[in-house]
Amino acid sequence: MENGDVDRTLTLLWRRTLGVPQGSRGPKQRFSVDEVLQAGIAVADEEGLPAFSMRKVADRLGLKLMSIYTYVPSRDELIGLMVDEVMGEPGLPPHEGTWRERLTVVARQMWDEFHRHPWLLQVEQSRPWIGPNGSDRYEWQLAAIEGAGFTDLEMDQTITLIGDFTTASARADVAARRMAEQSGISDAEWWAVNAPVLDRLMPPGAYPISGRVGTAAGEEYNAVRDSERSFRFGLDRIFDGLDHMLATRPSNDG
Amino acid sequence: MENGDVDRTLTLLWRRTLGVPQGSRGPKQRFSVDEVLQAGIAVADEEGLPAFSMRKVADRLGLKLMSIYTYVPSRDELIGLMVDEVMGEPGLPPHEGTWRERLTVVARQMWDEFHRHPWLLQVEQSRPWIGPNGSDRYEWQLAAIEGAGFTDLEMDQTITLIGDFTTASARADVAARRMAEQSGISDAEWWAVNAPVLDRLMPPGAYPISGRVGTAAGEEYNAVRDSERSFRFGLDRIFDGLDHMLATRPSNDG
DNA sequence: CCTAACTCCGTATGCCTTACGGTATTTGGT
DNA sequence: ACCAAATACCGTAAGGCATACGGAGTTAGG
Fold first, then answer.
1. A52 lies in some domain
2. Which residues bind DNA (chains A, B) (predicted)?
């Protein structure tokens, strides 16, 4: 990756504030960058990131493979642009209520987004591109807890904490759904295949606590693991912990 | 994936309890499954999962490409076996101290493991293979909070919470380290390249809170983001939240 | 001693990204 | 009005990947 490529990708990311840099000579491009991104997002939504290829994006637009490279420098950069693009979809509603309610909205927005675009969880961003929608969202997320009593440092750490947990939780849920839907094997069917083999392989009595806890979880949930409920459980614990931190602070003006 | 493949992979995972199923005719295999896994782990450690290929595993053993397929059914299954293999490396020390201290050990073990084998974070396990080391670890993790006052359901949710958060936190840290080390671009250098471009592209004054918080974080940390510290921050909040749940429980015998 | 079973491997298929060069098209400059 | 530069689009090819298939050599059970 060259220095100029950084410049080019950042310029593409922020194209709405400066306009797409395009020379006036030569033929006009048949599509806009936005249309290429929408095609890419559609492919990724339908087939996931491993099956995402430049050829499929080109096919969807009626272009030939190599023409895509006149719009974006490479596959990785295209994906980076797609990420910032979908981050602009949900909009940023004005904050209301307590910081708990606000943070719930923040977390729920991420959770929903990961379910709308599961491939976001498969993106390996070695380099975090700083785009307009990501920047807007981070500002909005910080605004959710502005004035709640956190220090600046804690504000960053809190948003990081919520984001990290939500990401991991959504990852587990999406993986479970993918296993159930894509392979046509439900949770119960999967266990039906695995259980007899495991019965034969596992040393009997080796997992007393797991067995007990697993049975309890299986009876309580409608599935082996209810990710939605685990998500709310974790969120509630984290909120209680943040509450405790704010409440026990020496100089706390509310 | 056929039904028989499930059987074969599970049998390979639990090979230590039943032995590797091998017919007696024909030539003996030059290597053991363990040696193949060690070769695979070495390749993944050195080059990461995207660059992990069957050819490189074969080269490392002095075998030709296709011979690997007589040891493991496919690339995905090999990776699944590698995952369970590394989960057996650290051992499971006996639990001591309070549940807070125990859960800290549990989280720290995962955190360290992700840093020892960063490719674990890149594994896309559409199907969670149930292997001996993973099962042993889950049992050990549950034992850490056995008798602390959690219900069976909460035990599972708590371990999930700690695991989810640790995974996401480690992912952020590993990504940052990779960016710094692998590309030879330090945190400061990356900003030195990006900042001038962003100064030109970003609408001035658009990000007041981000600017203030980012400055605070930059001054407090030695880097832009101190993942180790964010990790401890999140863990402390979660522990406080769990503490609050246990303390406010109606029938709480301690 | 024969043959079934097994290991190892050569070849081939069909994906993928992307470098490079060619051709057609558009427009600024003269 | 015309030329040359710039640009979009695309064909080809190189080099990578997983893995299906079949063949050659090797071992041991009957």
1. yes
2. 53-72
